[in-house]
């Protein structure tokens, strides 16, 4: 099992110092990759509007760590431009770039490209071919500003001959199936999904890989898990409950905004405060027991093995969900102890 670090929420306090410090630790201690997201127009994740920009900085600050986007919201961008930016990251890192593509879930993000919302899924899946062709040096035919059909190629040429490519898959089984059909790796998370549902969707993914001539042993299945490892499970629970509950509340606010934009009058805020608190407590208990790396190296081993048995090959440890940054950095030693047990 590989272990990586992933960032998703972030805070304005120290901006990017925490990310850099964590990346340097991961780089020096055998972790596989660092993942940064694309988020827009909200405090929740707002530090990460462009993963290629931050990825370029991380490439220069590390020596061996894979530098990955988790994820690029592809329908907001031209796949040609995405290929160019990440080829720069690949060159700066000397061949350590990787890319996950997401269809996008927040209508507000699409203020950048409103035309991309309606067919966002198809745009994302179609871009896989374009990205691969450009990355591997094949000519791509496009229309220029005068309406002429022209041939283009990618510059700078990337270091890696093939682009490590993931599809971000969560609730929809169709996306897992598409990832299998296209032969993409999978980046997933337990969002609106039980462990049992994840197992079913990964089984569908592996079955589809085989049906389309792809080797299931050659892909990477990356699972994002909230992570904080200490020496005492009860102390960990006490430490993570306040920030994790705030994190869940912020996440539900984002989902609430999405629901209200799609169906005015519906949303999380329509339920009472006491019901919201109960929902958050229920979600926390579920994550703490079965859906996160929250505890000690000993107590979290069973969680790692459960997901390993499903076919997960990499855990992306989400560490920026509100725990004091110094405590998180100190806890990386205990996370590294867990990582070494499964290296």
Question: How does this structure look, described?
Answer:
- The protein has 343 residues and is α/β, with parallel strands linked by helices.
- It has one domain: Alpha-Beta Barrel (TIM Barrel).
- 46% of the residues lie in helices and 17% in strands.
- It contains 10 helices and 11 strands.
- The strands form 2 sheets. An 8-stranded parallel barrel has the order 1-2-3-4-7-8-9-11, surrounded by 8 helices. It has a two-stranded antiparallel ribbon with strand order 5-6.
- Helix 2 links the parallel strand 2 (33-36) and strand 3 (66-73).
| Strand percentage | 15-25%
Instruction: Note the total helix count.
Output: 10
Strand order of the largest sheet: 1-2-3-4-7-8-9-11
**What is the 3D form?**
globular
**Any guess at the CATH architecture?**
Alpha-Beta Barrel
Low-confidence residue ranges:
263-268
- Average pLDDT score: 92
How would you name the oligomeric state of the polypeptide chains in this document? Answer: single chain
Write the layout of secondary structure elements.
Blueprint: E1 2-6, H1 17-28, E2 33-36, H2 51-61, E3 66-73, H3 79-92, E4 97-102, H4 120-135, E5 140-143, E6 149-152, E7 165-169, H5 173-182, E8 185-189, H6 195-211, E9 221-229, H7 233-262, H8 273-290, E10 293-295, H9 297-310, E11 314-318, H10 325-341
Helix pairs in contact: 2-3, 3-4, 5-6, 7-8, 9-10
